[in-house]
Amino acid sequence: MSLKPYLLLVLMIPFLLLQEEEVVKVYLIGDSTMADYSDNYDPGKDYMKTRYPITGWGQVFQEFMGKQDLQALSHIIKADSVVVDDRARGGRSTRTFFEEGRWSKVYRSLEKNDLVLMQFGHNDAAENKPERYVNVEGYKEYLRLFVDQTRQKGAIPVILTPVNRNYPWKDGKLHNVHGEYYTAAVEVARELNVQLVDLTQRSMEHFTEKGRDYVTKNYFMNFGPGIYEAYPGGSSDNTHFQPEGAKAVAALVFKGLKDLKNKKSQK
């Protein structure tokens, strides 16, 4: 009997193994500043007509997960390829994200080495909106729950402090608007030894560098009437992003993940 078929199979095994890419998911859980408006808002409707230009930074985060980019994240992402799964939703706090069953769906889907990037705080602090508000201690408890359950599945939690709003400005510098909720996120990360991307600080510094006039016009949802079909009367919104702002914040998150390598080496 000829050995040629068997020899051919043996020779092909390394080639076949090389073709099997290891893929992990990066789950994004959070609020409207992170959300993907193009696919999970107004199903069946035209995003360009009903929501554009509003853009969450998670909506464009896949662009930062190319093969070359992943080389810079090899300390935290052990894979050849990444799929960003954006579960963030507008108006959600840590509490409502959990109570609505959104976290349980992520938890059931989690696999070993997946990442969970969690960015809350905007809605948790909304005392004037009891349907979403959660006090600081409650906020910390829900972050602990997300972290602990992520680790149960062998996945990697990363806490993000909330991206800053376009206020308050003083003497040409943007200052922290998130107060106790910012501090709480930092404290939970320290307490549980969780990787932290200080997006609040990074965004304040970047927005300050670009200047108030520039980010107000180009990053945030501020524009006059008659420009976009979805906003015939214009918009004055210093929380949510236009595409340029979303891409800038996504780049800050990517840089934050990249810099975790240096923090790890310093321990």
How would you sum up this structure, described in words?
The protein is an alpha/beta fold and 267 residues long. The chain has a single domain, classed as Rossmann fold (3-Layer(aba) Sandwich). 42% of the residues lie in helices and 16% in strands. The protein has ten helices and nine strands. The protein has a five-stranded parallel sheet, sandwiched between helices. Strands 5-6 form a two-stranded antiparallel sheet. Helix 6 runs parallel beside helix 7 and helix 8 (199-210) packs across helix 10. The protein starts with a helix and ends with a helix. The model is unreliable at 15-19 (pLDDT under 50).
Summarize this, please?
This protein has about 270 residues and is an alpha/beta fold. Helix 6 runs parallel beside helix 7 and helix 8 (about 200-210) crosses helix 10 (about 245-265).
Helices and strands, in order, run as: HEHHEHHEHEEEHEHHEEH
Number of helices: 10
Any idea what the CATH superfamily is called? SGNH hydrolase
State the assembly state of the protein chains. single chain
**CATH architecture identity:** 3-Layer(aba) Sandwich
Question: What is the total number of structural domains?
Answer: 1
Helical residue percent? 40-55%
Give the low-pLDDT segments. 15-19
C-alpha geometry: globular
Largest sheet: 5 strands, parallel
CATH domain topology: Rossmann fold
Report the CATH C-level class: Alpha Beta
Radius of gyration, in angstroms, nearest whole number: 21 Å
Q: How many E strands?
A: 9
